[in-house]
Specification:
With about 140 residues, this protein is α+β, with helices and mostly antiparallel strands. Helices cover about 40% and strands about 20% of the residues. It has 7 helices and 4 strands. Strands 2-3-1-4 form a 4-stranded antiparallel sheet. It is globular, with a radius of gyration of 14 Å. The mean pLDDT is about 100. Bound molecules: inosine-5'-diphosphate and magnesium ion.
Length: about 140
């Protein structure tokens, strides 16, 4: 089942020089491809739309501040079961609970700075791809 997902390598991943490492893990999955890729500082309104579901939660404001603290890498990944596959590759939200071998489990310690975002459903993926890459077919 071919799917697509919107992935963000968050500002901590860029700052810590982990982009190549994380991209490599995504690239090495059989039959997956990166079909759009850009390093950019995410605009406030883009972030508000992206994380709208979390508005009002205690972690929302610090999350917005963190996500605006430096450039991120935004990309579209396409291929066999990428939605579930990327969530597995990333590991659960809390990096301390994430298994070693996962991106968050290998490189993260605090929940906010957990290195990567990956779409959690096909519906989210379509919405997020439109938001981050409006010209993408
Ligand atoms: P996800 O990224 O695994 O889908 P979400 O629950 O959608 O996790 O939360 C979005 C992002 O908000 C997380 O990736 C993390 O950066 C941050 N976050 C979520 N829960 C907390 C928390 O309890 N404390 C601090 N930051 C949080
Ligand atoms: Mg989420």
């Amino acid at each position: 089942m071919t799917q697509r997902s919107l992935v963000l390598l968050k500002p901590d991943a860029v700052r810590r020089g982990l982009v190549g490492e994380i991209l490599g893990r995504i690239e090495r999955k059989a039959d997956w491809s990166i079909t759009a890729l850009e390093l950019r500082r995410l605009a406030q309104d883009t972030l508000e739309q992206h994380y709208g579901e979390h508005q009002g939660k205690p972690f929302y404001e610090p999350l917005m501040e963190f996500m605006a603290s430096g450039p991120s890498v935004a990309m579209v990944v396409e291929g066999e079961r990428v939605i579930e596959g990327l969530r597995t590759l990333a590991g659960p939200t809390d990096p301390i609970a994430a298994a070693p071998g996962s991106i968050r489990g290998d490189f993260g310690t605090v929940v906010r700075e957990n290195l990567i975002h990956a779409s959690d459903s096909e519906e989210s993926a379509e919405r997020e791809i439109k938001l981050f890459f409006p010209d993408f077919a």
